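To assess whether ligand presence alters the predicted conformation, the chain was also submitted together with magnesium ion. Input:
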Amino acid sequence: MTEFDFIQQYLHRQQQDNELVLGIGDDAAIVRPRSGYDLHFSTDMLVGGTHFFTDVAPEDLAHKVLAVNFSDMAAMGATPRWALLSVALPELKQDWLTAFCDALFALARRFGVTLIGGDTTKGNWVFNVTIIGETPRQHALRRDAAQLGDDIWVTGLLGLAAAALDVYLHKTSLPAAVFAQCEAKRLRPEPRVALGKELLSLAHAAQDISDGLAQDINHILKASNVGATINVDLIPSLPDLRLSDAFLPAQLYHWLLAGGDDYELVFTAAPSQREAIMAAANRATTSVTKIGTITAGRELQLINHAGNVIQLQHQGFDHFG
Ligand code: ADP
Ligand code: MG
């Protein structure tokens, strides 16, 4: 199959989009932004061997490459609208691409996102999506907006993807049913777009958790010039991970705080918003848990129920660290 067959046969699919003037097929796509909205641009790259194993199922890879980008939009309360997909593959295999594109378009459709362009080259397993989203003008959730006394919340369950990865790295073993739940979370993160939109009127600062909670919340603390205290015993995870005697505390804390690949949201909001946030979480069918407080200290302090200070060995993932 040639590059042009791929574009013609696999990527040209009719998608309903009122703001799309010109889609795939010309030198560039044209979109017409809605008046009263700001546009958000972000890009996230997945590299074979670093972010995924190259024998990954094409459906799972398609899900992940879009979902991690939708998650960046969710973190700002933005609605993802348009995506560009750049692909470097050693060869264009028909069955593989059919499965990949079917999954890609299925997820795009579920979130109302149109694929408007990209690039295709021969190369060694790189998938890059550029995502464009929108928020009502000047309402976006940003990292620099946390306020003293805010509650700190997270969505979903943390640590599952990191635990699944440690199974591959032979650093741990998990019972089959527990591994299945962790692996599903590693392969198919669910972007919290619906909740992000709800939080536009409720939260102060937000960020998605891709490199580990400890490192990612530090971005909020730095940008907002504040500190935080988090109770590690409140961080939501699978009871099978939390309550098992099989894991050392250091391993559990690594998964919860530094493992990465969670694609959940961490956000801050005034305590007066607690009930409204619970109601919003209900509407978005996303669980939320309050895990700490924004402080004046400018540092992240981790404590447990007993009041002991927890020290982390590594804060989170850094490609060059
Ligand atoms: P050019 O040579 O002008 O860059 P291409 O031949 O690379 O154009 O691409 C033709 C059209 O197909 C363009 O609209 C481009 O955005 C689109 N396209 C190419 N590869 C992809 C891809 N992997 N995903 C989505 N659209 C793509
Ligand atoms: Mg090109």
